[in-house]
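Design request, tokens follow.
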């Protein structure tokens, strides 16, 4: 029997980062381990590069993994090189960063995480793109109180996630409107951490919980009436997919990364950076709690129509199709 092909997944973030890149890399390793010999590494070459050798390199992040991508292309010409593009790759780096551009040129295939992404890849490399939606397990939709609306936002505090929109929306809401906001994420930008603390001090209906373990964050998504996702750029947010899979609808900024996850016709978008529109959307959700034909019910039904895209079997099949095509 032939040995399984060896796959090295290079990720700039390992377990201690507890971020989207790490969640993606760990999940891909698990999904593919039955078909390939898989290892995770922060860079290539690594300790496993020579023995038993590596048949395929799959690198997350065109810019941050650029050194590994270039080293592979030089050392292993002709061997498959797959580069998975993040939101910062798509919507910032490939337009201005020479290392990210070189990664796209060297790649045999490009993985993008939502269906709007290929349109933002330069035409010269667009044919390399393959869409692989991320996945997670379904969770039960938990009972929701009718006494108030519980909203949750999950994402480390950094400029790309645009938490300022949430801070401003919280200040536009009055404490007696029955809208409670939990905000989960580490302050990767200290200034944004200060803004979160100031918002919590001024707004008793807003809580910044800091970083939480993945399981705890997901439980809060299950309990919430709505997930708020105000990013200015996204590659295909893991947290959006997790909300969909536990029956929690989403209020999201209308940016390509969110539209590519939730669909062009989704009714839960607000203009990027528009705190007033976000606050108004939360008020509409609050007013319609429990209404069978209200905003929340309509958004939940639309999310349910997208849920099959985010099943583990679908993600495994899409990943295998990319790799097997090259082998």
């Amino acid at each position: 029997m032939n040995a399984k092909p060896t796959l090295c997944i290079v990720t700039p973030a390992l377990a201690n980062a507890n971020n989207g890149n790490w969640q993606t890399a760990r999940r891909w390793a698990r999904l593919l381990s039955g078909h390939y010999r898989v290892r995770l590494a922060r860079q290539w070459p690594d300790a496993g590069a020579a023995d038993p050798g590596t048949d395929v390199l799959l690198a997350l992040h065109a810019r941050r993994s650029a050194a590994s991508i270039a080293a592979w292309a030089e050392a292993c010409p002709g061997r498959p090189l797959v580069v998975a593009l993040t939101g910062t790759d798509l919507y910032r780096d490939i337009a201005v960063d020479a290392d990210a551009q070189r990664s796209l040129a060297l790649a045999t295939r490009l993985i993008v995480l939502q269906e709007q992404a290929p349109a933002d890849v330069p035409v010269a490399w667009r044919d390399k793109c393959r869409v692989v939606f991320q996945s997670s397990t379904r969770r039960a939709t938990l009972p929701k109180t009718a006494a108030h609306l519980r909203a949750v936002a999950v994402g480390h505090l950094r400029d790309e996630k645009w938490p300022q929109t949430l801070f401003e929306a919280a200040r536009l809401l009055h404490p007696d409107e029955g809208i409670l906001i939990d905000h989960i994420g580490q302050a990767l930008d200290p200034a944004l951490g200060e803004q979160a603390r100031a918002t919590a001090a001024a707004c008793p209906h807003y809580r910044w919980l800091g970083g939480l373990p993945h399981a705890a964050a997901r439980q809060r998504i299950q309990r919430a009436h709505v997930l708020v996702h105000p990013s200015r750029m996204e590659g295909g947010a893991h947290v959006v997919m997790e909300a969909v899979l536990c029956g929690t609808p989403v209020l999201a900024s209308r940016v390509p990364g969110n539209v590519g996850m939730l669909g062009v016709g989704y009714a839960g978008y607000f203009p990027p950076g528009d705190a007033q529109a976000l606050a108004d959307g939360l008020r509409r959700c609050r007013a319609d709690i429990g209404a069978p034909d209200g905003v929340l019910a309509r958004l939940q039904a639309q999310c349910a129509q997208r849920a099959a895209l985010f099943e583990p079997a679908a993600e495994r099949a899409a990943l295998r199709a990319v790799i097997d095509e090259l082998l």
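Comment from the thread starter after seeing the answer: thanks! The mean pLDDT is 93.
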